[in-house]
Amino acid sequence: MAAARRSPGAADAGLGYEGPMSDFVTGEQYEITAGPYSAVITEAGAGLRELTHEGGHLILAHGPDEPAPAAFGQLLIPGPNRVDRGRAASR
């Protein structure tokens, strides 16, 4: 499994890595690959922006300059203190 920073859209244009991408709404973009799978994770909220298998999209992707539409790729799990009578167990 490999992880690398990449410039969004760079793979499509054949440009490769172009440096830090903190200018994007979603922050820096991190690409993770394993075999035929590839994912792009965003700095903002650790969102799943893109997931592909052999180049085909498995999720509805969004651009790095766009916030995740309808919370696509975002974890929507409230913390225990955000749920009525919620408690966190620790060992």
From TrEMBL:
<protein>
    <submittedName>
        <fullName>Uncharacterized protein</fullName>
    </submittedName>
</protein>
<dbReference type="InterPro" id="IPR014718">
    <property type="entry name" value="GH-type_carb-bd"/>
</dbReference>
<dbReference type="InterPro" id="IPR011013">
    <property type="entry name" value="Gal_mutarotase_sf_dom"/>
</dbReference>
